[in-house]
Amino acid sequence: MGNPDTELPERTVYVKQNICDNTLDNAQLAKRCPLDNANNGRCADASAPARIPAGQLDRLPAELLIQVLLYTDLPSLTCFRRVNSRAMQLVDSVPQYAAIFRHCPDIIRAIISIQADAFDCNTLYATLSTTRCATCDRYKDHLYLIDCSRVCYFCFTRRPEY
């Protein structure tokens, strides 16, 4: 009997693919892009009276203001949160933003890190709520931040548009 390695048929040998996937999974986002959401210690309620006003925005009803913020991109929401405590309270009171922060804060960090401003908070929430790949209808496990679409590993590594 000869060497078992040389007797294996070629089709059973696994060849590792050289894939440059440009993912942010090992980027230490929590350390490099800290978020102040957990540190504010306030109850997020847009209708609550504020000690510091949000200027002309306080003239709008809370429901309308939340809708405006919902259709704002994440880097802009983050900048608006830094204006004052009332702005922080308003952004934190958007239910979709709060859910994204609660369940996947690293996605917010990644979006801020690469300044992905081509889609709004509502689009991101809707995309994260889907279960299928945007291209092939398989189960998705990647979020493509360029256009805010969910893609499966197969499409992510083999299709040129990703």
TrEMBL record:
It comes from the Eukaryota. SUPFAM superfamilies: F-box domain. Residues 54-100 form the F-box domain. InterPro entries: F-box-like_dom_sf, F-box_dom. This is F-box domain-containing protein.
